[in-house]
Sequence to fold (110 residues):
Amino acid sequence: MAEIPAVPRHDPGNNRYVAEVGGEVVAFSEYHLRGGNIYFFYHTQVDDEHEGAGVASALVRFELEDVEARGGSVVPLCPFVAKWIERNPDYNRVVNQRIMERIGAQEEND
Fold:
């Protein structure tokens, strides 16, 4: 499927970032905000008809750049966000490494 131009934006009232196509929300990425600037991304979803069109990738790129511009950091609990960062390692600069290390240590002890 060809890439569809999506317009991403922050929707802070609903603790999420959304991507719109033709004025309709077709994808979203939800987060919990902790400490005023740590975004725990836990779920990303794309409408079926827009899957594979680059909408979610555009959304994740936007949200990471927006969080960074706000002076924040992210904890990518959502598998899609985590995998996207893995494929785009320059964005590790936005990941809260301290928390990720604590999560990793906790998983090792479980």
Observations:
- The two ends are 41 Å apart (CA to CA).
- The longest strand covers residues 24-34.
- The helical segments are 55-69, 79-87, 97-109.
- The beta strands are 7-11, 16-21, 24-34, 38-46, 73-76.
